[in-house]
Automatic annotation (TrEMBL), chains A, B:
Native species: Roseibium hamelinense
GO CC terms in record: cytosol
Keyword tRNA-binding: no
InterPro entries, per database record: ArsR-like_HTH, AsnC-type_HTH_dom, Dimeric_a/b-barrel, Tscrpt_reg_AsnC-like, Tscrpt_reg_AsnC/Lrp_C, WH-like_DNA-bd_sf, WH_DNA-bd_sf
Top-level division of the source organism's lineage: Bacteria
The protein, known as: AsnC family transcriptional regulator
Keywords: DNA-binding, Transcription, Transcription regulation
Pfam families named among the record's database cross-references: AsnC_trans_reg, HTH_24
Gene Ontology molecular-function annotations: sequence-specific DNA binding
Occurrences of domain HTH asnC-type (ranges): 5-66
Swiss-Prot/TrEMBL GO biological process terms: regulation of DNA-templated transcription; response to amino acid
Cited Gene3D superfamilies: 3.30.70.920, Winged helix-like DNA-binding domain superfamily/Winged helix DNA-binding domain
Lineage of the species this protein comes from: Bacteria, Pseudomonadati, Pseudomonadota, Alphaproteobacteria, Hyphomicrobiales
Length: 159, 159
DNA sequence: GTTCATGCGCAAGTTGTGTGCAAACGACGG
DNA sequence: CCGTCGTTTGCACACAACTTGCGCATGAAC
């Protein structure tokens, strides 16, 4: 009934993740289908959860957000309660773009975007370090960004 | 003449980066302006580079991409030529979502998304390590993703 | 060979977008 | 205090895009 992506679906997903401003007509011409089919397939792809949402990709530079940093956080005593507080804190921080719990010697990696180094310092010293759970914080700053497209590779295991 | 974002512009940017499927009419009602104004402002925001592009945000899980990893790469002899090759290689690898040159003891951080650990291993052993420039590779795998919205914080230094 | 399910394009109805226009507003100078 | 000018707004309309019903083609099951 549903599921299982064919060749057309993958092309639609690929086109939309690179440029969601494309009209159905554009995509139709691109992959050799009619606009109405694109519309129907797109609805299905949204309903089945392949497309999570549509986003405008803003320019950090234009908005004065010059500093991107990765911050590794190590928790001390892994008390349930303190860890929970830490996670909620992180979710509520607008400067944090991504947060993952990691394997290896660091418990969390945070991707942080701020206007300048002073703001980064403020985030680390005022928000992160005062947390009871936090034992250690190591930050590394992105000097140059080679690639930042966040495009998922779509060629795996399909038609 | 141009530049300088007012309160309305920030609200529009905020709404669109969270959900680009909103119509001008939706945003108009949200922030108390007419749809035509949203249209005009949006055009300006695009022209002035605040909005880079529109993207469909796909679900890695739905697409069978279960493994996200951060890979730290250290280059050996920093020969200009080998470094250049390394950067081009990275740009061409579809599994690499982000790549930054970093301050600190690691030269590059790569965000990599693949279907499984085997695929990660393949990327590291077949693509990364054989590079002449590469001296050392350390990878850390995301066990749980707390946050992954990539929403820029918009409240800095404006009206 | 018939039936059924699926996917297709076309065309029509609906919804959304963008521009001309006139009015409102604010800044500035007389 | 008032007029002028530039900017921003809402409205209305023309245009563009989206979506859905429909009939047809294709291919699998029996």
């Amino acid at each position: 009934m549903t599921d299982a992506l064919d060749h057309f679906d993958l092309k639609i997903l690929g086109a939309l993740q690179a440029n969601a401003a494309l009209t159905n007509q554009d995509i139709a011409e691109l992959i050799g289908l009619s606009a109405s089919q694109i519309s129907r397939r797109r609805q299905r792809l949204e309903k089945d959860g392949y497309i999570r949402r549509y986003r405008a990709d803003l320019s950090p530079q234009a908005l004065g957000l010059a500093v991107t940093a990765y911050v590794g956080v190590t928790l001390g005593a892994h008390s349930r309660e303190n860890a929970r507080k830490f996670r909620n804190m992180v979710k509520a921080m607008p400067e944090v773009q991504e947060a993952h719990t990691m394997t290896g010697d660091v418990d969390y990696i945070l991707k942080i975007v701020v206007p300048d180094l002073q703001a980064l310092s403020r985030v680390i010293n005022d928000d992160l370090l005062p947390q009871e759970a936090v034992q250690n914080v190591r930050s590394s700053i992105a000097m140059e960004t080679l690639k930042d497209d966040n495009l998922l590779p779509l060629r795996y295991g399909q038609t």
